[in-house]
Amino acid sequence: MAFWNLKTLDLQPFRTGITSRAELGDHLIMAYMEIAAGEEDSGHLHPHDQCGVVMAGRIEMFIGTERRLLGVNESYFIPAGELHGWKTFDEPAMLLDISSKHPEL
């Protein structure tokens, strides 16, 4: 699919507390996701760059040793191999997330 309307996008279960929709190209992955209130990822890393924009809600993210509370229209960039994670609070967070696609995926 080449075009999305984020207001009507059909989100599917991704993992506990997260619904999403993703499009995978040869070199990029575009994902729109809703992370439920009160969820947390204590940290992970992967071999590709990742960036995104908060579309709704708030999310606290850490990238390496830097930690930031992000709100609507704020963005993040995660270099390949950098430990990162997040947590949501009393409301869901909606993110538009873009990753480069590692050849092993």
Descriptive notes:
The chain is mainly beta and 105 residues long. It has a single domain, classed as Jelly Rolls (Sandwich). It is 0% helix and 55% strand. The chain is built from no helices and 10 strands. The strands form 2 sheets. A 6-stranded antiparallel β-sheet has the order 1-2-3-10-5-8, with no helix packed on it. Strands 4-9-6-7 form a 4-stranded antiparallel β-sheet, with no helix packed on it. It is globular. The model has no long low-confidence stretch (mean pLDDT 94).
Q: What distance separates the N and C termini? A: 19 Å
Query: CATH superfamily assignment?
Result: Jelly Rolls
Examine the coordinates and then state which fold CATH places here, giving the name of the CATH topology. Answer: Jelly Rolls
Q: Supply the number of structural domains.
A: 1
Counting DSSP E segments of at least 2 residues, the number of strands comes to 10
Provide the succession of SSEs.
Answer: EEEEEEEEEE
What fraction strand?
Answer: over 45%
Q: What class would the helix/strand composition place it in?
A: mainly beta
**Major sheet:** 6 strands, antiparallel
Please identify the top-level CATH class: Mainly Beta
What is the CATH architecture assignment? Sandwich
Radius of gyration: 13 Å
